Amino acid sequence: MSTARGDRSVPGQLSPAAFLVRGLAVGLAAGLIAFVVAFAFGEPYVDDAIALEEAAAAQAPADHAAPADHGEPADHGEPADEEPADESGMVEISRENQKSWGLLTGTLAVGAALGGLAALAAAAVIGRLGSLSARGSTALVALIGFVAVALVPFTKYPATPPAVGSGDTIGGRTASYFALLLVSVLAAIAVVVLADRLRTRVDGWTAAFLGAGAYLAIVTVTAMLLPTVNEVGDFPADTLWYFRRSSLLTLTALWATIGVGLTVLIGRLHDRAAADLVRRELAASL
Q: What range does the domain containing 198 cover?
């Protein structure tokens, strides 16, 4: 990894692989913490939503049942409860496994991926963000990642539990969410580059405020252009609110762990590399 400006003399201990290993480790820890938060605070509301969905599904056939044919029994085939649960032949995963091992697998995978990407991003910007130290630039990367990847898309398209939203629109809703996510991430990268270049003309704080304003303008316009989703229906507002609050809490726990963990580990790595450089220079001067 090539370093820049004040860190050009730091030895090759600061390799992309060293950052990536730490990012993956921190990401796994973040995924575990996110699982605990999601299981404790989010899954009870998912259970409530599933119960509401099942109750509505059970009520629907009763509301639309055809009248009996002159009292004749309607047993012309196999009982409905003997039909396979999944007509495609796929094995269904029980709810207990979904909210335990399934949820844990998902949070670990997402945490490792985000941790690795955040670590590589931190490796790319160390020494390139003015006077910020390795710890400061790493913390800033994690903060920008939380805002761009989690917070901004969530404000337009918040998480929804089962029984909310139509299955016919899930494709469009997913596409809109990822479109906003992509614009948010690209805009965050662009404004960091812009703010760095503006530092040659204005002071650091002014450059930071101009970059933040540019990012806010881009994502606001994009969010206004993307379609609005309003498919809540008669779903209980309190259950929806608590579920979304727990989802945001889970995202915050995930990114906070990544930020704190990477800041500590990368800071220590940078300190060891700098100390090793001092020893080498001292040895060379003798």
A: 165-231
